[in-house]
């Protein structure tokens, strides 16, 4: 039966409802619906249920004449409006990585289509689809500004996430307890967070150092050892520290430096972004002029250790040197077993601490080091029984200035040299037959810098077990170590040395190729004891189980050479 006519041009109730931009009422006759299904585009135009940010289209209650249509651009018709994406300053960029200066308040990953760091970088690098990257490789506080590193390929993302060797260094301007005159200058905060698995607990750890304090404000250098979401904000609250805002209500928290291993070259890459001057001045510090990353120092060169000579001499004479005084030097003296009147060659002698110890037992010492500054410091305390010479350990065999000696040692220095074969061959060339050669390094299996770390297992702090996490061992790698991290956070240029991590077999085989016969190997543990607490007993047990130093002793054969 034909539909009845209506005042609106003979349209049915259903049709009139659609034209008005509303939905059919329950009183509409279902039998009057058209035979074909309603076109989805009309439903969208009239009463769309599609989720959109409010600023990107009219509301459902669009007025007459709009027809519920979405605007294109700024008020023009024909398409959706794209939200504005600020262009972020690029700090580093290659085929695999891109690092940008993150604005305050911008989330790393946005919800729906809201602008995030990832979305902004995707647009400015002209990546059409979100599935094509970029991808985040570390957390960054939403309130913070500073370095944000993204991977541009899935392989680079997986490599960085699996390596777990990305380090971050924040600066935070705060008020509260850390700004007090009696507040500790540094410390560690540790909390537990629920893991992904049922009953799993994850340990979150942050180290902090106070760089300066002024008028109730303090500038802290924060180094999160784990990468938990919201970790810094939670740990600052535990310190009773509140972030101070600066000009333009900008929060005083800034990710100043990110250090990671490049997924292609496998070199340590340091990306920096200078913090605003007001963060320093409000804490009573001089605003730095900005420091650019410096290239690694040449291995075993005198220049690199000249730059770190002052720091090294201060370290050797400080209370932090207890492991050297209580473990290393006594162990070296025992393994050398040098008798009064004998001569010991101390390779990479530094400022002469071991030489002074041996001298007190009646042993004569000849020390060599590539650093002129360290040799000058050693000569300040030299006696008639000690002599110091500036020399490169890698050319020791051809150095006519070095005489034959009874024994030789290289203490906590061979790991900073590459290659090591010429060093060991030079020591063998100058040691008399039957003489002993002692080498001490950080334990390659358990104390390899940036490849091993302490970790905890278990739920209750009283029953947890501490273990040593080893991320790599057999592969050899050059790792840059910043010797002055506190000064770097205050704006000074980083002073770096290079540590060459190798497995134990590399040292033993190199000794054999040099013609030395290894006759002893010792693994030395730390004698330190934890302060009383629920974890103290477990920490002390773990120290006794995992050695911190490896000592190797070899003998120069009386006849022939094992390497010939």
The portion of residues assigned to helices is 10-25%
Q: In whole angstroms, how far apart are the ends?
A: 112 Å
Report strand %.
Answer: 25-35%
Query: Strand pairing plus helix content: what structural class?
Result: alpha+beta
Shape: elongated
Mean pLDDT: 78
Number of helical elements: 15
Largest sheet: 11 strands, mixed
List low-pLDDT spans. Answer: 1-33, 37-81, 290-305, 307-320
Computed over alpha carbons, the radius of gyration is 33 Å
Q: Could you give the count of β-strands?
A: 24
Please give a quick description of this structure.
The chain has 15 helices and 24 strands.
Task: Describe what you observe in this structure.
The chain has 564 residues and is an alpha+beta fold. 22% of the residues lie in helices and 26% in strands. It contains 15 helices and 24 strands. The radius of gyration is 33 Å and the shape is elongated. The chain starts with 12 loop residues before the first helix and ends in a 9-residue tail after the last strand.
Question: Any chance you could write out the topology, listing elements then pairs?
Answer:
Elements: H1 13-19, H2 40-47, E1 71-72, E2 76-77, E3 90-93, E4 97-102, H3 117-124, E5 135-136, E6 145-151, H4 154-163, E7 167-176, E8 186-194, E9 201-214, E10 217-224, H5 231-238, E11 241-243, E12 253-261, E13 268-272, H6 277-281, H7 302-307, H8 309-316, H9 322-336, E14 343-347, H10 353-359, E15 364-369, H11 372-380, E16 386-390, E17 407-411, H12 421-430, E18 436-442, E19 452-457, E20 465-470, E21 477-482, H13 485-489, E22 496-501, H14 504-513, E23 517-524, H15 536-545, E24 549-555
Parallel strand pairs: 6-12, 14-15, 14-17, 15-16, 17-18
Antiparallel strand pairs: 1-2, 3-4, 4-6, 5-6, 7-10, 7-11, 7-12, 8-9, 9-10, 12-13, 18-24, 19-20, 21-22, 23-24
């Amino acid at each position: 039966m034909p539909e009845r006519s209506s005042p609106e041009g003979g349209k049915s109730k259903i049709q009139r409802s659609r034209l008005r931009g509303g939905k059919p009422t329950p009183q509409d006759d279902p039998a009057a619906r058209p035979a074909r299904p309603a076109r989805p585009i009309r439903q969208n135009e009239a009463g769309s249920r599609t989720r959109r940010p409010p600023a990107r289209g009219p509301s459902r209650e669009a007025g007459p004449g709009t027809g519920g249509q979405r605007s294109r651009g700024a008020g023009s018709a024909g398409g959706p409006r794209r939200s504005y994406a600020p262009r972020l300053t690029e700090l580093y960029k290659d085929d695999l990585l891109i690092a940008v200066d993150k604005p305050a308040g911008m989330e790393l990953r946005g919800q729906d289509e809201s602008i995030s760091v990832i979305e902004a970088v995707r647009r400015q690098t002209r990546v059409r689809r979100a599935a094509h990257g970029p991808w985040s490789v570390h957390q960054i506080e939403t309130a913070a500004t500073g370095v944000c590193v993204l991977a541009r390929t899935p392989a680079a993302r997986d490599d960085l996430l699996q390596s777990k060797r990305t380090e971050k260094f924040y600066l935070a301007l705060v008020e509260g307890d850390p700004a007090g005159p009696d507040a500790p200058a540094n410390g560690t905060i540790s909390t537990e967070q629920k893991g992904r698995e049922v009953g799993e607990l994850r340990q979150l750890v942050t180290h902090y150092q106070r760089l300066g304090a002024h008028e109730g404000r303090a500038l802290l250098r924060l180094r999160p050892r784990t990468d938990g979401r919201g970790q810094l904000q939670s740990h600052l609250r535990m310190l009773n520290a509140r972030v101070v805002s600066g000009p333009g209500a900008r929060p005083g928290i800034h990710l100043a430096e990110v250090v990671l291993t490049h997924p292609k070259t496998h070199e340590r890459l340091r990306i920096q972004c200078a913090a605003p001057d007001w963060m320093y001045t409000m804490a009573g510090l001089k605003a730095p002029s900005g420091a650019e990353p410096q290239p690694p120092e040449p291995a075993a060169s005198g220049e690199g250790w000249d730059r770190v000579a002052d720091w090294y001499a201060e370290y050797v004479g400080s209370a932090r040197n207890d492991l050297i005084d209580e473990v290393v030097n006594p162990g070296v003296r025992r393994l050398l077993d040098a008798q009064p009147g004998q001569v010991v060659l101390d390779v990479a002698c530094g400022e002469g601490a071991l030489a002074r110890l041996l001298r007190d037992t009646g042993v004569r010492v000849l020390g060599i080091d590539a650093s002129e500054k360290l040799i000058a410091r050693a000569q300040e305390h030299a006696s008639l029984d000690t002599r110091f010479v500036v020399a490169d350990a890698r050319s020791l065999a051809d150095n006519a200035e070095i005489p034959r000696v009874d024994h030789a040692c290289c203490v906590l220095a061979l790991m900073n040299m590459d290659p090591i074969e010429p060093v060991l061959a030079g020591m063998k060339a100058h040691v008399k037959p039957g003489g002993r050669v002692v080498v001490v390094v950080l334990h390659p299996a358990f104390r390899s810098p940036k490849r091993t770390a302490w970790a905890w297992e278990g739920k209750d702090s009283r029953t947890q077990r501490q273990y040593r996490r080893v991320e790599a061992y057999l592969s050899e790698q050059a790792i840059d170590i910043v010797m002055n991290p506190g000064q770097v956070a205050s704006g000074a240029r980083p002073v770096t040395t290079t540590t060459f991590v190798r497995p134990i077999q590399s040292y033993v085989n190199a000794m054999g190729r040099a013609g030395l016969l290894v006759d002893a190997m010792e693994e030395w543990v730390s004698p330190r004891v934890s302060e009383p607490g629920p974890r103290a007993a477990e920490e002390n047990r773990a120290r006794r189980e995992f050695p911190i130093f490896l000592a190797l002793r070899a003998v120069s054969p009386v006849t022939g050479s094992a390497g010939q």
